[in-house]
Every structure is written in C-alpha cells, then in structure tokens.
Amino acid sequence: MIPPALRVHESDSVAVALRPLHLGESAAGVLLSADVPQGHKIALHPIAAGDMVIKYGQPIGRATRAIAAGEHVHSHNLKTALAGELAYAPGEGLTAQAQAATDARWMGYRRADGRAATRNEVWILPTVGCVGLTAEAAAAAARERNAGAIDGVHAFSHPHGCSQLGDDLAGTRALLAGLAANPNAAGVLLLGLGCESNQLDALVETVPPAARAKLRILSSQSAGDERAAAAAMIDELVEAARPAVRQPMTLADLAVGVKCGGSDGFSGLTANPLLGRFSETLSASGGRAILTEIPEIFGAEKALLDRATSAEIFAQAAALVNRFKRYYLDQGLPVSENPSPGNLAGGITTLEEKSLGAVQKGGRAPLVDVVDYGGQATRPGLTLLEAPGNDAVSSSALAAAGATMLLFTTGRGTPLGFPVPTLKIASNQTLAQAKPHWIDFDASLALRDGTQEADTAFLDLILHVASGERCAAERSGQRAIAIWKRGVTL
After folding, report:
1. Please, which pLDDT band fits residue 160 given cuts at 50, 70 and 90?
2. Whole-angstrom Cα distance, residue 236 to residue 214?
3. The SAF domain covers which part of the protein (predicted)?
4. Does residue 466 fall inside a structural domain?
5. Given 214, 243, 272, which residue is the final one in a domain?
6. In a domain, 368, yes or no
7. N or C: which end of the chain has fewer CB within 10 A?
C-alpha cells in the first residue's frame, strides 16, 4: 500500500503528500495542521525562520517564517536562496553508477556513417518562415503519394531565418544543420526562399560533412514551380530511403535525449529517477544520454559537475552553467525566475527544488562531454547540451544533437511531440489515467510495484518504440520544432 506521504531522504525536513491530505490527518509521523494538496510538502519538524528547508537531502530554499511540524510548506513560507554566478571547485569526483549494462536488443536502421536510426523518414527543413507553409503542404502531399514506402515524410516549419544577425542567425543555422544530420532523417530537403539571411549555401556548409550526401537543396525564388520541384526531390529521397531495413541493434547504438516539462511534486520521486536509472543503464551499455535545460539545474549543478570524467569537462560544464546565469543577469532577471505557474500548482516551490528533481534524469551516469547549442553528442555516456528549459526549444535541440528518441517526463501533461519519437512519462497516476492519448508510461508504477518492475516495463517500452512502435505523440501527429531566438530582429 502506498503511504500518505513520502520522506525522500533521511535528512529531509519535509515529506511529499502522495495523495490529497487533510487537516488533522496523520502522515509521515506528524499531525497535519492544514490541508495539503497532492505533490506538496509537509514539515516533519519545526523549522525556524531563515533556516534551510531540506528535500532530496539538499537545501531547496529558506523558510520565510517559523514553520510548525505538520504545516503545509510552499510559496507562502519558503523562498529560493539562489543568487548569481558561483565559483565551482571539483569535489570528490565520479560516483559509481548503480545500474549495470544490458544486452537488450532493438531493431533499427544502420546509416552509412555507422549511426543507428529509430525511424526511416524524409524531412523537409525550411530555411525561413516564409516557406514554412510550402514545406508543410509538400510533406502532406508526399505522405499521400508515398504512403507505406517509408516511416514518414515530415516538414518542420518555424518563424526564423530572416532579419537575424550574428550569433542569433548562427544559432538558427546550427539547429537546422543538426536536425539535417539526425540519423532518423534518411533524406532531407532544405527548402529556401532565396532572399533570407539564412542562405542555403551557408546552411549546407554548417551541416556535418558525413550528412551532406542525403541533402537536396531548393531555392523557391529560383525555381519555376517550386511545388513541382519540391515534389520531385522528395520522391527521389523517398526512393533512396525505401530499401532500408531494420536490423538488430544494442543499447550502444541508441542516442536518447532526456527532458522534463510541466513538472510536479512527483516528478523528482517517480518519473525523473526512472529516467535516471535508464540513463545509467544506457551509459553502462555504451549508449548516449543527452541532458539539457541548463536553467533547470541551477541549485543542483554540484552533483552533476562532480560526475565529470575530466578536469576539462568539469570546467566546460561549470562555465556553461555560469554563462547561462549571466544570460539571465544581463537581462536584469534573477537566476531563480522559475518555477512556472504549473510547477507551483503541482507542489514545486523553488528552482532549487525543481532542479534537484530535474537532474535526476541523468542518474549517476558519467558526464563525458559538454556541447554548445546546435552541437552533436558523440561520446558514450552523459552529454550536457546548451539550451534553455522551454519544452519545444530544448527538445528540438536534443534532436539536433543526434537524439533518435526523447524521453519526456511530465506531471501536468502536454500533447506536443518533436522530430524524433517522444515518449511521454507521467509522474503520477492521475495524469496517466486522464490523458492516455498523451501519455506512454505511468512512472508511479514504481510506488505501487517497486522500481525493478517499473524499470523492466519501461525498458521494454523503449525497445519497442525504438523498433518502430509509434508513441502517443506520433499517433496524434504531434511533431514540431522551436528555435532559440536570442538576438535583435531587424
């Protein structure tokens, strides 16, 4: 039987309500002095004003007033203790990961460069928003013409590519180039307008050389009938992709992006630890796990940094965290400008609390690399990728970094999917039961049946989806990208 509340770590001063609790009810050894919503926190002993509140064995903020045992702990009596940039020093070093390698198999497509794909598709990437609708229409027509020939034809429109300068334009170009290189795209049509800032020739030069052979290039202003020209190029790419067949793969062939969105008080108890255990298994098996959402590790970065495999990786990761803090501070915003309204409603009070739950997606896998936005994750183990926390922006960046599958945890729910199969993992049973057309897996299984049962079922699902079974977002036609816009618009 699931208890009414859970103390995550023996040193914690709060417990988490696993169901709605009421005034006078007993939970986690204390008598409640107020109603406490599901996912919210309960004080386990008196906490003085100014004292740190402890969850996950770590501080999640300071008490703004005295808090009695059994009291509801949230934004009315707890605030962040985060400030600005920090000087990070290496700690005790790498902690051995708990999960071992597995010889589990899945069926994927082997590409010419040796990488493996979970899907065999043709993608249309517009250079600029002006041809986004043209790309979508071309993809829809191609799907009808080529039904059943390959796994799919998809266009990914966006509003950028023109009126951009400098690093802002370079970021757009890097993101699109990374998507073009993703193994799931057997062929790619780069569709331009002609007069945009994001010129086709510069974009092609940004695509990794090994992926350029699968590209077709079309400038709409230079073509007579750009619709007919696009259709011919897409059909050519489909025919080139058609002979590909699935073959046995191991986890060493899998690249997975891990992401959380719409987190709640259960996310750090069920869904994110589930991903963390899988990240450890994937890493131990020679695969690649990719972690991003840099602002959502503020306050929890020390444990992640201490898993760096070298002093160089430690320094790069620390610099990335501080660079992102500086990005906030330069805009006159506090680094703690988080959690979101949905997070707060779900029981998360401070960014430290959100971050300590979020970083669990990487488990204790070794941190082997740090890559910039639009960069590629190439090393077995855990890679830290530069991107903000925004769901669509960070998920697109994970796909551009080479992830052929995304594992997306959520406590509040979202239907949106991204270029590669995006499995939605609910942190709580209520969401899983309410939104079966959004959710692929209920991570609260770990509370009911234990972590081993949940881990086994989750790995089985991952292997099936990697082998071609469509996830909920794919079945609903939910696929999109978003690009990180950082500069001025002309």
Report:
1. very high
2. 11
3. 12-79
4. yes
5. 243
6. yes
7. N
Average pLDDT over residues 383-389: 96
Please compute Rg for the chain using Cα positions.
23
According to DSSP, the β-strands at 26-27 and 30-31 are antiparallel
Q: Are 383 and 369 in contact (CB under 8 A)?
A: yes
Q: What's the structural domain count of the chain?
A: 3
Contact 429, 444 (CB under 8 A): yes
User: Of 191, 212, 243, which marks where a domain is finished?
Assistant: 243
Same domain? 233 vs 256: no
Please state the separation of Cα 255 from the chain's center in Å: 12
Which pLDDT tens digit goes with each residue over 301-341? Answer: 988 998 999 999 999 999 999 999 998 888 888 888 778 89
Domain that holds residue 321: 249-475
C-alpha span between 376 and 399 (Å, rounded): 9
Instruction: Mark whether 194 and 326 lie in a shared domain.
Output: no
Contact assessment for residue 142 and residue 122, using Cβ atoms and an 8 Å cutoff: yes
Task: Tell me: pLDDT of 55 over 80.
Answer: yes
Are 301 and 88 within 8 A, CB to CB? Answer: yes
Say yes or no: 287 and 377 in one domain: yes
Do the beta carbons of residue 101 and residue 285 sit within 8 Å?
yes
Specify whether the CB–CB gap between 236 and 216 falls below 8 A: yes
Beta bridge partner(s), residue 239: none
Does 456 fall in a domain?
A: yes
Residues 332 and 418 in one domain: yes
Q: What is the distance between the alpha carbons of residues 222 and 412, in angstroms, rounded to a whole number?
A: 47
Residues in the chain, overall count: 490
Residue 115 maps to a domain: no
